[in-house]
Design brief:
heterodimer, A: alpha/beta, Pyruvate-ferredoxin Oxidoreductase, domain 3, Rossmann fold, 4 domains, 20% strand, B: 293 residues, alpha/beta, 8 strands, globular, binds thiamine diphosphate, binds iron/sulfur cluster, binds magnesium ion
């Protein structure tokens, strides 16, 4: 028997409740004190097609999903066709006994156990609604896993109880109980994997990257969000909209992405923390405005939730293809910072930090995520989000708000110049509204007072460019962080990655070390600006280093080479739109090492 | 809105305008200043957001807060600013290219939001700053460097579009009559909601057709017609299409019934967003966490 270590997948058509069932099941398991990692895969359509949701369960913290599964829960026949090959020997498939096309012999040939169940029948007879088949299927899975049904029941009550009246909740629960008993009686003795609650485990959240970013923005005091919906950023925008009333923030759906970032620039110019979120297509539209934020030294945060391109690409899938684009997007040269959180915890803290960096250095900050990080769920301890810490670290830099009269009286010894030349390049920022700080700013090259530089003198131009770019040096010195390593200290091979690759690479490193190859990971959160001399030192100390990223061209490898002159010994890329996973990385590392 | 005593001199910027002598933008600048004086608006109480073009240089030429932004993009900046600081008088000044061309979509949408912003469009029916190409408002047949045979497009009708899009204050002024224009700007600022003031602004260098004389021969004031009621949308629609020998200026349409965008946002009920304490209370954030357990 294998206890508390299982990987299962639910699959079906869009509209069958694959995602909600998977999420609910994962939440129930987390309530039992176990750790989960969940990843979804869906097509860009509202009905039909094929969607799946995969959940991995363990007693330890999980960072990634794995391709091999022990249990498949099929809401339709296609799920069996598509995923049979992923099931390990001894694994099982739960499906409805009315599915005519299921080839039980073929399933058995692979050493997999077919477990047909009267799911639809139970849903209709006990629940009075065929749609409750998904509840029956999840409960049947609990039956063969011998997982205490009270956990899923509590989730069902929470999900339906308040919203649609407890009548529906109770009917679902009766369906669950019937399916659970039937499955346990018929099949539990055939299935090796079991789930057992951990007594007295701490309460945990089940949360995805977008929600964690939202928490970070709230905790950092963001008060304004304007965005245009685009997968996979939409659910972050929706999270902020849902919280707007409770937290007194303004959320506006803009007419396009230009308007989204420009409204944020307007709000930030008024002294409010603001962000816009989008994916690559929307970010392309924002490019000119990003340059305006750079020129006017306006602190605005943009979340770039990547998906594969070019153009509409694979709208519901994942990739890390926009790093070099976003690091260079916008015309002219101007300072910006870019952060790429890799875990749920990092999403929370880096989002909050993005606002601090933006305001301290009065420049735009880009936060990279991607569909994989945005939508994968993990169980994390409640204290993993430390709001007091974030609050204590809020740093608005050289900002004085126009109603802070005393501070203004003290600061304005000699009139106010918005773009005063100062050693660190960071001028005092007083948003409009105070009689002693009346000024006009311009995206056009301007004088320290803010006026357009009519004379276009060489001296002013040079000093303004130097002032703006100086902020990057100061930020790199004082605020930006070097990549962090994980794994063997004396590694033969270092896997270098950024953003969402963290989880899969970390688990790959564990596997490699377990298999006897000394490996470690070097993970970049901060991409720009950086102290590249120090990065070069770190890389020069690596025996061999290989970048791992979800793109074709090896963008991190190129970025490192551009800044340090150092060339990766190899690159592992994945551009099929599906997330990286540890097995993929380990296999491909073998290949590339053979060539190095 | 404050009613201090403000003089034209106080509104004098240290920067000298670079507009061509005789340019209609001088009349607009003059009218804007007069409006501020009439309303007793002090420099720190007003925020001008402009696009890119000749007329968009205006914020530098008046002592007030300003933001000279990108071609076609002042409207969303003004919207974001206004929501963050809603006791500021926010005025957008931009060109016909800015607003009826490249930034047209922002304009279309701000009109249906009824945010309290006054929008002055410098309509010279040409692209001034880029030296004379035809504009979205150029008349059919207008000859320019990019329409050497005369344009074969029909011009945008700003008044009709604004009516259709739901603007609650729609006016047209003439920079050759700054007193009348100032009056329109005053009313636009006083209006609760979005106010469009399209301004005939002769470009004396590039537009040799729509000159001061051309306008003077044609324009008449709507308010001089005792039968005209700007609350009547059907009348406004008719007047919006009057073009040719007689061209109306003045207030075409006004609707004081609708709530503003700001009024409908609960977060703005007590004080402006920028004055609100951050971060939120830890207890509220902790409570939200529990929704994810
Ligand atoms: C994105 C972009 N496209 C083009 C330009 C070039 N450009 C600057 S002003 C302008 C047109 C100006 O015309 P209008 O808005 O009518 O203002 P005017 O100069 O007539 O007052 C153009 C095309 C630009 N600055 N930015
Ligand atoms: S080019 Fe035309 S619009 Fe521009 S400043 Fe000269 S007269 Fe005015
Ligand atoms: Mg023009």
């Amino acid at each position: 028997m294998v206890k508390n270590d299982v990987n299962f997948k639910l699959g079906g058509e869009a509209g069958q409740g694959v995602e909600s069932s998977g999420m609910g099941f994962a939440r129930a398991i987390a309530r039992a004190g176990l750790h989960i990692f969940g990843v979804q895969d869906y097509m860009s359509r509202i009905r039909g097609g094929h969607n799946w949701y995969q959940v991995r369960v363990s007693e330890r913290t999980l960072y990634a999903h794995e391709p091999k599964i022990q249990l498949l829960i099929a809401f339709d026949e296609r799920t069996i066709e598509d995923h049979l090959h992923e099931i390990v020997e001894g694994g099982a498939i739960i499906y409805d006994e009315s599915f005519k096309g299921v080839d039980e012999e073929a399933i058995k040939m692979r050493g997999v156990i077919p477990m047909p169940m009267p799911l639809i029948k139970i849903a209709e007879e006990v629940g009075g609604n065929k749609l409750m088949m998904n509840t029956a299927a999840v409960a049947a899975a609990c039956g063969i896993l011998e997982f205490d049904l009270s956990y899923p029941e509590s989730v069902i009550r929470d999900n339906f109880g308040r919203r649609k009246g407890s009548e529906i909740a109770e009917r679902n629960i009766r369906v669950a109980e019937a399916a659970f008993e039937e499955a346990r009686r018929r099949y539990a003795h055939l299935f090796d994997w079991k789930l057992e609650p951990i007594p007295n485990a701490p309460k945990r959240m089940v949360i995805n990257g977008n929600q964690a970013l939202g928490f970070g923005a709230l905790a950092a005091g963001c008060k304004f969000v304007a965005s245009y919906p685009m997968t996979p950023a939409s659910s972050l925008f929706e999270f902020m909209c849902a919280q707007s009333k409770r937290f007194g923030i303004i959320t506006r759906q803009s007419e396009d992405e230009m308007s989204g970032i420009l409204q944020c620039i307007g709000a930030a110019h008024a002294g409010v923390r603001a962000f816009a979120c989008t994916s690559g297509g929307g970010f392309s539209l924002m490019a000119e405005s990003l340059s305006l934020a750079g020129s006017t030294e306006t602190p605005v945060v943009v979340v770039l939730a990547q998906r594969p391109g070019p153009a509409t690409g694979l709208p519901t899938r994942t990739g890390q293809e926009d790093m070099l684009f976003a690091l260079h997007a916008g015309h002219g040269e101007f300072p910006r910072a870019a952060l790429a959180p890799g875990t749920i915890e990092q999403c929370f803290y880096e989002m909050a930090r993005a606002f601090n960096i933006a305001e301290k250095y009065q420049m735009p900050v880009i936060v990279f995520t991607d569909n994989f990080l945005a939508n994968s769920i993990r169980s994390i301890d409640l204290d993993a989000f430390d709001f007091r810490k974030v609050a204590s670290e809020i740093d608005r830099g050289k900002l004085i708000l126009p109603h802070e009269n005393e501070k203004i009286e003290q600061a304005l010894l000699d009139g106010y110049r918005r773009y005063e030349f100062v050693e660190d390049g960071i001028s005092l920022r007083i948003p409009p509204g105070h009689p002693k700080a009346v000024y006009s700013v311009a995206g056009e090259e301007h004088l320290p007072e803010g006026f357009i530089d009519w004379e276009e003198t060489i001296e002013n131009r040079n000093r303004m460019v130097q002032k703006r770019m100086r902020k990057l040096e100061i930020a790199a010195q004082n605020d930006m962080r070097l990549p962090e390593s994980y794994g063997h200290e004396d590694a033969e091979v270092t896997l270098v990655c950024w953003g969402s690759a963290y989880g899969p690479v970390r688990e790959a490193v564990d596997t490699l070390n377990h298999n006897g190859l000394r490996a470690n990971m070097l993970h970049f959160v901060d991409l720009h600006p950086l102290n590249w001399d120090q990065v070069a030192d770190v890389l020069n100390n690596c025996r061999s280093w290989v970048t791992v990223e979800s793109n074709f061209t090896g963008q991190l490898a190129r970025w490192i080479r551009m800044n340090t002159g150092l060339k990766a010994h190899a690159t592992i890329g994945k551009y099929d739109g599906r997330p990286l996973n540890p097995t993929y990385i380990v296999e491909h590392l073998q290949e590339v090492l053979a060539k190095v | 809105m404050a009613t201090a005593t403000v003089t034209m001199k106080e509104l004098q910027s240290p920067v000298e305008p670079t507009w061509c002598p005789g340019c209609g933008d001088y009349g607009i600048l003059n009218a804007v200043k007069r409006a501020m004086v009439q309303l007793g608006l002090r420099p720190h109480e007003v925020f001008f957001v402009s696009g890119i073009g000749c007329g968009s240089k205006l914020p530098d030429y008046i002592r007030a807060n300003g933001f000279n932004s990108l071609h076609g993009r002042p409207v969303p900046i003004a919207q974001g600013f206004r929501l963050a600081h809603h006791d500021m008088v926010v005025i957008v000044v931009d060109g016909d290219g800015d607003n009826y061309g490249i930034g047209g979509n922002h304009w279309l949408h701000i009109m249906r939001r009824n945010i309290n912003i006054t929008h002055i469009v410098q309509n010279n029916m040409v692209y001034g700053l880029t030296k004379g190409q035809y504009a979205p408002t150029s008349m059919k047949g207008y000859v320019s460097t990019t329409s050497p045979e005369g344009t074969i497009e029909w011009p945008v009708n700003p008044i009709a579009i604004a009516l259709a899009a739901g603007a609650t204050f729609i006016a047209r002024g003439f920079s050759g009559d700054p007193k009348h224009l100032a009056d329109l700007i005053v009313k636009g600022i006083q209006h609760k909601g979005y106010a469009l003031i399209d301004v005939f602004q002769p470009c004396v260098i590039f537009n040799r057709i729509n000159t001061y004389d051309w306008f003077r021969e044609r324009i008449y004031k709507l308010e001089e017609d005792p039968n005209y009621d700007p609350h009547d949308k059907a009348m406004a629609w008719e007047k919006a299409h009057e073009w040719g020998d007689r061209i109306p200026i003045g207030i075409f349409y006004i609707n004081e019934e609708l709530p503003t965008l700001e009024e409908q946002i609960p977060a703005l009920a007590e004080k402006p967003l920028y004055q609100q304490e951050i971060p939120p209370r830890v207890e509220d954030l902790e409570a939200l966490k529990m929704a994810f357990v």
